From TrEMBL, chain A:
Pfam families (alphabetical): ABC_tran
GO cellular component, one term: membrane
InterPro entries: AAA+_ATPase, ABC_transporter-like_ATP-bd, ABC_transporter-like_CS, P-loop_NTPase, PstB-like
GO biological process: phosphate ion transmembrane transport
Record SUPFAM superfamilies: P-loop containing nucleoside triphosphate hydrolases
Cited Gene3D superfamilies: P-loop containing nucleotide triphosphate hydrolases (3.40.50.300)
PANTHER family named in the record: ABC TRANSPORTER I FAMILY MEMBER 17 (PTHR43423:SF1)
Protein name: Phosphate ABC transporter ATP-binding protein
Residue ranges occupied by any ABC transporter domain in the UniProt entry: 2-244
Record bears the keyword Nucleotidyltransferase: no
Example GO molecular function: phosphate transmembrane transporter activity
Sorted UniProt keywords: ATP-binding, Cell membrane, Membrane, Nucleotide-binding, Transport
Automatic annotation (TrEMBL), chain B:
Domain of life the protein comes from: Archaea
Transmembrane parts of this sequence: 42-65, 77-97, 117-138, 221-242
Lineage, highest ranks first: Archaea, Methanobacteriati, Methanobacteriota, Stenosarchaea group, Halobacteria
GO biological process: transmembrane transport
Membrane topology summary: Multi-pass membrane protein
Alphabetized UniProt keyword annotations: Membrane, Transmembrane, Transmembrane helix, Transport
Organism per entry: Halorubrum ezzemoulense DSM 17463
Pfam families: BPD_transp_1
Name under which the protein is recorded: Molybdenum ABC transporter permease
Domain ABC transmembrane type-1 residue range list: 38-239
GO CC term, one of those recorded: plasma membrane
Main location: membrane
Length: 250, 248, 315
């Protein structure tokens, strides 16, 4: 459904990755594991259609995102959601945050109208917050939440507008086990709804728990990509084995 | 002009305070004089600041969110503008609206509208510069999130403005402070005119103070100065109060 | 920036006009008094922009007499107090319709350059030399202004000068010139302020200064300076006379000058009734101005630059 083919990306002279191919299908969870700084974030942003690759293509349901005009690309981008390591919630209430994605997809006249009356968005907002277990905090100010709660709201925010693909960049790195568990459950719920999820993580146990497939990103390319069990139990590439066992020092 | 009625409200209140204060000091003001100069001060400065905000805030957001070569230079230019001497701006606007100047046919010389023009020029650098600082201070992550969740450039700008709203409010108040307390430009382009019975046409609190001072009536000038300070405090208090209540 | 503001301002200019109408071209039925025929060439509803000096304005005379004119014609007079030089410059630029100043030399130049026409002598008051009662330089009672200044210079007694090219400052410089003395040094202080402030400064320093009688009278209760050399009104030397003139801005140079209304004003202010009102105007119980416009005997010199005669080679 969402596919990057042969993509390369550099920042100035520094190459991040080269000739990388990865895809995710509807209702599947792909984990991207690799050491810090290897380029997981850059890869995810490329998949989110935010960063243009220096080479290669990124397609959503077969449409090359960078071969179409600005407005077509915006439409494609709006079918993808991303959650970062830091929640970065907006000021205002939790509901206002979760509603953002829905709000920006409405026309201006609808938006102005919604200032004056309740819109159907209330249901979607409530539902997404239920997935992350925070429906009781709907009207609270976003800055009154703890770090873990904020990240959960951030997830709900990306879920609310029912994207086709969801990209998660180390979503639980800063969270305690309880909040981590909530997020992982939410990932499961997204998968159940047919959303294609790509989650970058340096926690291999998390990869084992949530992913159907795992891509191992080392140096400047994907050394290996395959079903979770295979990667962890019987990796094909020597470097993969070393990374997983912790032998490779970066 | 919608702001005129608003500008008429405060003067009545302040007049009732300034009148007794003035007569205590032996200054006899004709009835309605102080109220009318307050009204002119408010009308000119509030309008100038409102118009400037409409231009400055979007400009600050555009500059703040964009990356381009020379961005640092643009920031320096804006900051330098904060130091424009008001009398110089007055002379430039005078040149423009004078009969001899490019806008001469509009007959704006010695009108409140010319004063709004010059105060617009004076208020824009502080409003832009401080808004720019506020916008730049918004967490990059917020910007990223707004964009990646499907926002257009305008959506992202609106989110950033909302996050920076306290900084922007400070910027607008700074612009108002600069405008309402300057005397150089409004004196030159406005002419400090009142009607024969003391109702102000282009006389502001600051030019009235200047008039009293040049005649050596320092105490009266001080009373008017106190009225001006009270006015600025009131406006500040209203904006801050409004901001506090608006935390959703 | 100003252009951006102007665009917005033009929009607001239309809806914020108060009752001052426009200072229009003065012809073609601009009047707002109902009942006149469509052909009327009235000035009603228009605004006359008059530039004058700060000392003239600060006496309050104009605010006292203008309502009469405004009612008579149904117009508004915008009196802009700018200082002599600025008042004339504004008129030169075509931004005012009429000027009222008291600097004959500058008025003559204004006429010679074609900017001012239909000049009339208006009124006069005088200057006085004031100083502390203790009179350190001993000039009290001198009948000669130039002698008094020479004495002050020799004694190096502190003297406060306006230093701003105003009518008063111009007169002061003429006096030094006539006295043959070039003032300078620590005792000679140029303040660049208005007359009222200058008097305050002289008061604080116990210094001498040249002042117009009007400003001195209105401030007398607040300062401790006394008149040491009288002006011609009280028998002093003619050289301290301070005559005022009024001139219309030449419509031949500035088309948009409100000539009709300016002439109406000149006619009004030089009329016997208003000249009397000027004489009756008092500050702190004293008459400030002495009318000059109404006279049995002809005074041709008021219409032309001083010393001009038809025998002159240039017209």
């Amino acid at each position: 459904m969402l596919r990057a083919t042969g993509v390369s990306r550099s920042y100035g002279d520094e190459r991040v990755f080269r000739d990388l191919t990865i895809d995710v299908d509807a209702g599947e969870v792909v984990a991207v594991i690799g050491p810090s700084g290897v380029g997981k974030t850059t890869l995810l942003r490329t998949l989110a259609l935010s960063l243009e690759p220096d080479e290669g293509t990124v397609t959503l349901d077969g449409t090359d995102a960078w071969a179409v005009d600005e407005s077509a690309r915006l439409a494609l981008r709006r079918r993808v959601g991303m959650v970062f390591q830091e929640a970065s919630l907006f000021g205002g209430s939790v509901a206002r945050n979760v509603e953002y994605g829905l709000r920006v997809r409405r026309s201006w006249s609808e938006r102005i109208a919604s200032l004056f009356r309740l819109s159907g968005a209330a249901d979607a907002v409530h539902e997404s917050l239920e997935v992350v277990g925070l429906a009781d905090k709907t009207d609270q100010p976003a800055d009154s939440l703890s770090g873990g709660e904020a990240q959960r709201v951030s997830f709900a925010r990306a879920l609310a507008y029912d994207p086709d693909a969801l990209l998660l960049d180390e979503p639980t790195s800063d969270l305690d086990p309880r909040n981590t568990a909530v997020i992982e459950e939410a990932i499961g719920e997204a998968k159940a709804r047919g959303i294609g999820v790509v989650v970058a993580t340096h926690d291999m146990h998390q990869a084992e728990r949530v992913a159907d497939r795992v891509a191992v990103l080392l140096d400047d390319g994907i050394t290996e990509i395959g079903p979770t069990e295979e990667i962890f139990d019987d990796p094909a590439d020597e470097r993969t084995r070393k990374f997983i066992s912790g032998e490779l020092v970066y | 002009m919608p702001l005129e009625p608003v500008a008429q409200l405060a003067p009545a209140l302040l007049d009732s305070g300034a009148g007794p204060a003035a007569s205590l000091l032996g200054a006899s003001f004709r009835e309605g004089y102080v109220g009318s100069i307050i009204a002119v001060s408010l009308y000119v400065s509030l309008t100038a600041v409102a118009l400037s905000t409409l231009v400055s805030v979007p400009a600050a957001v555009a500059i703040g969110l964009a990356e381009f070569p020379g961005k640092g230079f643009v920031k320096s230019v804006v900051n330098t503008g904060m130091g424009f001497p008001s009398v110089v701006v007055g002379l430039v606007v005078l040149f423009a609206v004078s009969n001899q100047g490019p806008l001469g046919s509009l007959e704006l010389i010695f009108t409140r509208e010319a004063m709004i023009m010059s105060q617009f020029v004076l208020a824009t650098p502080p409003i832009t510069a401080i808004s720019l600082a506020a916008v730049s201070g918004v967490d990059d992550g917020v910007r990223d999130a707004a964009r990646v969740l499907g926002g257009t450039r305008i959506d992202v700008a609106l989110v950033v403005i909302k996050e920076a709203k306290y900084g922007i409010a400070t910027a607008v108040l700074a612009g108002f402070g600069r405008a309402v307390s300057e005397v150089g430009s409004v004196l030159i382009v406005g002419g400090n005119i009142t009607s024969a019975d003391g109702i102000s046409k282009t006389r502001t609190l600051t030019t009235a103070i200047q008039l009293e001072a040049r005649q050596g009536r320092y105490e009266t000038a001080m009373v008017l100065g106190a009225v001006l300070v009270a006015l600025v405090l009131t406006v500040n208090a209203i904006v801050v109060r409004f901001g506090d209540r608006g935390v959703a | 920036m100003a252009a951006v503001g102007a665009g917005a301002i033009v929009g607001t200019a239309g809806c914020s006009s108060t009752n001052d109408g426009g200072s229009g071209d003065g012809t073609g039925g601009n009047g707002t008094d109902g009942g006149n025929s469509a052909e009327s060439v009235g000035v009603a509803g228009e605004t006359l922009t008059l530039t004058t000096t700060t000392s003239t304005y600060d006496t309050g005379l104009l605010d006292a007499i203008h309502p009469d004119f405004e009612e008579m014609y149904g117009v508004t007079v915008d009196a802009v107090a700018q200082g002599t030089g600025a008042a004339l410059e504004t008129a030169r630029n075509g931004d005012s319709d009429i000027v009222m100043v008291h600097a004959r030399g500058l008025e003559d130049e204004f006429m010679r350059n074609g900017y001012g026409i239909n000049r009339r002598d208006l009124m006069f008051n005088d200057f006085v030399i004031v100083g502390p009662e203790s009179d350190p330089a001993g000039i009290g009672g001198t009948g000669s202004a130039t002698e008094a200044l020479t004495t002050i210079a020799e004694a190096e007694a502190t003297f406060v000068s306006r230093g701003d090219n105003s009518g008063t400052h111009t007169k002061e410089l003429n006096l030094w010139d006539a006295a043959g003395t070039d003032p300078g040094g620590d005792w000679y202080q140029e303040t660049g302020t208005g007359m009222g402030e200058a008097l305050n400064i002289a008061n604080q320093q116990g210094a001498y200064t040249l002042s117009d009688r009007g400003t001195y009278i209105s401030q007398r209760s607040e300062i401790d300076l006394t008149i040491l050399v009288q002006g011609p009104i009280e028998g002093g030397p003619e050289i301290l006379a301070n005559p005022y003139g009024v001139m219309a801005v030449n419509p031949g140079v500035h088309e948009n000058a409100n000539y009709d209304l300016a002439m109406a004003y000149i006619g009004w202010i030089t009329s016997p009734g208003v000249q009397e009102a000027i004489a009756e105007y008092q500050v702190n119980g004293e008459q400030l101005f002495f009318p000059e416009a109404v006279s049995e005997d002809p005074d041709f010199q008021q219409y032309v630059p001083e010393g001009w005669s038809s025998d002159d080679s240039d017209a």
